[in-house]
Structure prediction request, 275 residues.
Amino acid sequence: MRAPDPFVPSLFRVDRVWREASDTATLGLVALQGEIPAFLSGQFFMLYAFGIGEIPVSVSGLWDRGPLLHTVRAVGAVSQALCRLRPGETVGVRGPYGSPWPLPEAEGGDLLLIAGGLGLAPIRSALLQALAERGRYGQIALLYGARSPEDLLFGEEIERWRSRPDLQVEVTVDHASPAWRGSVGVVPARIADARFSPERVIACVCGPEVMMRYSASALLRAGVPAARIFLSLERNMKCAFAVCGRCQFGPTFVCRDGPVFPYDRIARLLSIREL
Prediction:
């Protein structure tokens, strides 16, 4: 019997669609045959819009016998097509691929989650897992920033998280109207407000690359070792298993060796302009 072609996606049906922002939607996907493949928080799937193409999208939720959740921002032809999908339509799915968030390493210590923009989607899966196993961690803090209040994702869920006494949530925006009553400023500046012990924290960071670089620098200044800082990179992944070379990042391939990397492994690469 021939092994299945790794380039051929499985068929999934769109079960639900949640509109997160004017240009962002969360898709709930159900396998048409078999079960959803087991995955870990931080990994990604390749989503295929038939007749257009496929893109890598990190999982934005946990699998508890419900749909597979992906949050997509409409910025290109494929992501726009995915955001236009409606319940009952089909999409191709390959995966999961890549390295997960190091949540087991954080057990017994603190967990600091830092997200910028759409980076909250893969961070959300880590947070949901940590909250489902809350007793395994010490302090848990979420720092989240967006361009404006209108760009904030998972708004109702953020308010529920804020009401939890066992979770610190800090939200900031780059710019806002006078009606905004929250913080204005960049996410790295909020690290000083987070409650954690530098020597026992695992920091997970996802967002625009410049935001991640500044966040890593702020964490280092706060005393967090580089080996305990983890960044989720976004590169132009095409095959998802290091064959095509599209996502090569120095000596690594983001699809195979990432997307989650310890900062001490990639700090030098991030400092190289236009790499």
In short: The mean pLDDT is 93. The domain at 103-270 is CATH 3.40.50.80 (Rossmann fold). The radius of gyration is 18 Å. Helices lie at 77-83, 103-106, 120-132, 155-162, 209-221, 254-257, 263-270.
